[in-house]
Amino acid sequence: MKMQSCSRGLRELCRLLGYSPQAYYQYQKTSGKRALEEDLLIGQIIHHRVLQPKLGGQKLHEMMRPFMADHSMYIGRDLLFDLMRENGLQIRKRRRRGSRTTDSNHWMKKYPDLIRDIKLGRADELWVSDITYIHLQKNRFAYLSLVTDAYSRKIVGFCMNKDLSAEGPFTALEMALKGRTGDTSLIHHSDRGSQYCSDSYVSLLKSAGINISMTQSGDPRDNAIAERVNGILKQELLEEVYPNIKQAQSSAEIAIDTYNRLRPHSSVDMLTPDKAHMQTGPIKRRWRSLFKRHSQSPAA
Question: pTM for the whole thing?
Answer without folding.
Answer: 0.68
